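Workshop exercise sheet. Pairs work together: one partner reads the sequence aloud, the other fills in the structure field after running the prediction. Swap roles for the next sheet.
Pair: D.N. / O.F.
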Amino acid sequence: MAKNKAKLIIFTGPSGVGKGTILADFFKKVDNNIVYSISNTTRNPRDGEINGMHYFFISKDEFEKLIKENAFLEYANYSGNYYGTSKKFVEEKLKEGKSVLLEIELQGALQVIKKCPNAVTIFIKPPSFEELEKRLRGRHSESEEAIQKRLIAAKEELNNANKFHYVIENKIVDEAVDELIKIYNKETK
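Structure field:
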């Protein structure tokens, strides 16, 4: 049997497209040769989010200190908050032979693509912009101003989908998950 190929997998798409839902199902159905990279962020936790599981929630000062120490594989300021991926975490897991999935926004994804040209890149898109807006509003977790910022960002993000190896439309979650599993198996087995 061929040895698994540890890969860095970049997973992105607009806010509200369903990345978290897809990944929750994906990780229930795949082997343990892949880990989810937990990002650092300066935003406040949403209901149900747990520090160290969903994100590492840190202060802006702490984040900026880590930037100066070159501790991030990528980082970005998105909708007024910092998000970043620990370089050390990713490197350690890849050395252990584990693939690492980064769920990151577009700015960060493009940074990682430049630094890691062998990464597998996957973009998740909504069935329509109207559906994306409906999903964002359905969260009931953000102000109108924050929603508008995310919608403006989403238009730019959707215009960059062609820069990714794979584009998955999240119309039906189960189908999107199945497509992600096929990509994972193709790229790592």
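Discussion prompt: The chain has one domain: 8-188. What would you look at next?
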